[in-house]
Amino acid sequence: MNAHLQAALGLAARTLPVLPLRAGKVPFGNCPSCRGNACGGRPNMKTPGPCTCPRPCHAWAAATTDPAILTGPTWSTAWKQAAAVAYHPGGTGLTVVDLDHADAIAWARETLPATRTVPTTRGEHWIYLGAMQSANAVRPGVDIKSSMAYARWLGPGTGTMTALPSAVRALVVKKPSPVRPIRVPVPAGGSECRHRTPVYLERGIAMAEQRIAEAAGGVHATVYRTFLAVLSAHGRCGCLTDAHAARLFAAAQTRGESARHCSDAWSNARTALGM
Question: Structure pTM?
Answer without folding.
Answer: 0.60
